[in-house]
Amino acid sequence: MNEKSMTTHLGWAVRNWLLRGFPAISLRLLAFGAALRHRLPSAARQELETSLSLAFSGEGPLEITGLAKKILGTQLVGAAAQFRLQLLTHDKLCRETQAMRVVGENFLRSHDPAQSTIIVTPHYGHFMHAALRVAIDHSDRTVCFFYNPNERNPYAETTDELIDRVNARCIKIRNDRKGLVSVMRALRKGAILCMMPDQITPEGEITYVPFFGRFFGVMRGTAFLATKTGAQIVPAFCHHDGANQLVLEYRPPLVPAPFLDEETQIYSLTAALFREIEEKLRQAPEHWRYWNQFARRSLPSLSLPRSTPELVSQLDLVRQRFDHDPSMRELVLSWQQCLQGPLGIDEHQGSLASPRVP
Length: 358
Description:
The chain has helices at residues 3-21, 23-37, 43-55, 61-84, 90-98, 127-137, 156-166, 177-188, 221-229, 262-283, 294-297, 308-320, 326-340, and strands spanning 101-103, 117-120, 143-147, 171-174, 192-195, 206-211, 214-219, 232-240, 246-250, 298-300, 345-346, 351-352.
């Protein structure tokens, strides 16, 4: 081992010792270092500021830059806190997880003991801590964790190991065709399922829901599973309170409405879930990990058109955003053709004309 390698390994050993034995001091030092590092502009900060300026359009450039710096610092500290979990002994990992304060736990209870529940936590705050607390608290039930396979999720094996250390009875299921069948079977038997609704995969089915004044591309999977199995969706968020104690907060359940058709149920549940996430993010936006993707994954909301030609023009702008998706481009084009087709546009009135009678 050369001198450089020895120095690197010594640095890692010191870092791990500090994180394991002195977490508060270590994380505070990391926050200070992040503040210094992100004082100067960078590509990461610029991308983040672009997204934030779209989400918080009422804020000025100074406020956006300040929020971007805060988010970058919080993400670094959060990643270190999550890495620290791997350094803890089994007993200490369980003790620290159980020391977390839980709010809204009654939302998980149901009059029907067979009621299945999907606990959804976005990549917000200490989401891995939340997953471990769910695993510990519900050791008397079937608890499943659903996430992307190893080739798309480098943290998958680490997640498996951490969950096994606190509750080896939990079932870890990968997000693929076989896994989807297993998840639906478990939910129909009254299981608890934990998943993260705010990530997207290239082959997944995406829908656009209102989110921070724009239409945001999200996966339909959570709502699809709830609609197919009758499971309730319980949003959960893990963060520090004012006393710097870790808190796991459950929100009221979202339940599929029986009188809606399946597609409408899936969309309404997805939209309702992201309304909950937006409400939480407006209180503390620095805790979300995916702000850097907001601009890429969102479309501008359409203003109310004053005339049909204006609506056609707005749809043209929307169509241009789907260069990567020919099927969506064709769909939007068909809408435009319908508006300009059998009913026609009254060019003088700027509105829909009366149907043409042969």
